[in-house]
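Input.
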Amino acid sequence: MRKSLFLLAALLGSCASPPIHPPAPPAQAPQPAQADRPAPQTPFESWLAVFRQEALAQGISAATLDAALTGIEPAERVVALDRGQPEFLQTFTDYLARRVTAARVERGRALLQEHAALLDAIERQYGVPKAVLVAFWGMETNYGLVQGSLNIPASLATLAFDGRRSEFFRGQLLDALRIIDAGHVSAADMKGSWAGAMGQMQFMPSTFRAYAVDGDGNGRIDLWQSLPDAMHSAANYLKRAGWRAQEPVAVEVKLPAGFDLRRAGIDSRLPLADWAAAGVGPAGGGALPSVAGRAAIVLPQGWQGPAFVVFDNFDVVMQWNRSLNYALSVAQLAQQVAGGGGLIAQIVAGTVSTAQLITLQQTLNALGFDAGTPDGVLGRRTQTAIRQYQVLYQLPVDGYPTPAVLAHVEEKRAAAVAEGKLTQAPAPTAADAVGQP
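Output.
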């Protein structure tokens, strides 16, 4: 009887209408529908969330963070440019020829006249020659025509997350957000290079915050559209970096026969009178300028290339961009914009590829000359190793990696291998040649 009643109850229950929302299991919390569940965060989104909290803690407004960081994603192009390495080393003369062109010189001269009132006033205030300011303008953005089109917060966030120089770019990103927060530019309009440089003079965010000036007096600093802001800011930077009024940056010189090339180098400073006494004079003839400070001889393309005497203002330009080629090109462009002539020396030195320089570094290391990590970059450590090798084998001591130097080094290594003093080293890999991390 009990069994029959149980079956009847079961049949009656099966005929009832099903509930609209089935009850949740007694011991479990309600489960959201699949479409309502938040998607898992990517590593970049997780990093960005932590960074946002740090920025808020440092006083950057939520509105600025929303405007600058919402929806951004890592930019693969930025990472590729940061890690890229040229196939060939760019010689000084190649570098100069691409940047100090006849068209750029002509345009610079025209702009020097067009903005004479502004530039004259800035020169009087800061002591920086107007031709030098125009040269920086031409070198950095081709007189404002190429300022970069990448979103600065997105680029800096990519580089801060990527890890190669994350701490540096994290600081630059915070400074970029502070600039937006101060009302100088909107997040959407803050555009520039892949590395975060922006405006007519390509200031990094930290440089903007430290040196940028409201040159037109409108209450905000616009390095993109306001030429007074850009020029005052550049002059302010140079003055505060130690610019010496009425002194040159660099002068092309001719070295006397038998000049000891070991005396050349950015760190080898002497009074200019001592260089003159040693027979160093301007390449175009005449006398060296009257300069109170100490000077150095630099050979940007080795003993077969041009020679320059450089002064304290050269060091100031190197603070702007730590490239010998860049600093010398600024000096050359300023000289020509002001009405002077171009390079005088005739160039006969060759160059090596990045892969060949890696081979040279590896071979020097194997022979006992410390060239550092074989990376295809001609840094001071590599130049010192080349100089030491040149001294030992009585070659011209200029520290420059020509094909002839590479051939000489490889010949010595082959001899050492044949004598059993060294083992044959592996050739550089493709990853070495392109500078992969």
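The beta strands are 150-151, 191-192, 250-254, 270-271, 281-282, 294-298, 307-310.
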